[in-house]
Amino acid sequence: EVQLVESGGGLIQPGGSLRLSCAASGFTVSNSYMTWVRQAPGKGLEWVSVIYGGSGTYYADSVKGRFTISRDNSKNTLYLQMNSLRAEDTAVYYCARLGRSSSGYHYFDYWGQGTLVTVSS
Amino acid sequence: QTVVTQEPSFSVSPGGTVTLTCGLSSGSVSTSHYSSWYQQTPGQAPRTLIYSTNTRSSGVPDRFSGSILGNKATLTITGAQADDESDYYCVLYMGSGIWVFGGGTKLTVL
Predict the structure, then answer these.
(1) Which of A5, A18, A11 is closest to A116 using CA atoms?
(2) CB atoms within 10 A of CB B71
């Protein structure tokens, strides 16, 4: 059974740093495309970042230069390092796997339950 | 920057049919956008409904269907039920590793 469990959220002051973790089971993160998606309180979903099976990484403009996605294959865990945090980064952060359909199209097939990050003084 | 558009809200009667749309502020949605749809209830993680434009995820009832009509991706619910009352999100692949979610549609069943 595929499971994704996020951790590392909490209250952090503006300008601070935080690292989120997403422990995966039931599949291997090293062979998978993995993403982070966030949701500000009362708002919609926002794609944040993706890491491909190689080492390619991509970011939304809103976090580029401040957030870094990475993974530890030995721990089967995905990370999101968040620096220079702002109030507008306050959100529930979900990790999700990008699965691939039989026709080759990617989609968000498994989601974690999310971890809340609150940026406030 | 391209915006993915969805109706902010929609209402449907129990047993009725509703079609939600997912468009682009500039241009048309095509299969190359890998359109997919997700259902979310308050406090819960999103649930995958439709991917590759029109493929239902495992366990999703066949009253949910997806397509591309005109220049938009669509999610149709046929025979809406009370527990379909949720937020619905589409997401499109923009190329170069970038994905963009629509703003979501709040569906009311009454």
Answers:
(1) A11
(2) 12
Structural contact between residues B103 and B5, judged by C-beta atoms closer than 8 angstroms: yes
The length of chain B is: 110
How many other CB atoms sit within 10 Å of the CB of residue B98? Answer: 16
Q: What is d(CA B46, CA A89) in angstroms, rounded to the nearest whole number?
A: 19
* B36 vs A52, A107, A114: nearest CB: A107
Contacts of B91 (CB under 8 A, 6+ apart): A45, A47, A107, A108, B4, B35, B36, B38, B99, B100, B101, B102
DSSP character for B25? S
Q: What residues in B contact A58, CB-CB < 8 Å?
A: 96-98
Cβ separation of A105 and B96 shorter than 8 Å? Answer: no
Nearest residue of B to residue A35, measured between CA atoms: B99
B26-65 pLDDT, tens digit per residue, is 999 999 999 999 999 999 999 999 999 999 999 999 999 9
At which residue do the structure tokens 């359909």 appear? A101
A102: distance to nearest CA of chain B, Å? 9
Q: Which of B1, B51, B89 sits opposite A107 (nearest CB)?
A: B51
Taking residue B56's Cβ as centre, other Cβ atoms within 10 Å add up to 17
Matching residue, tokens 């979501």: B104
Average of pLDDT values for A8-31? 97
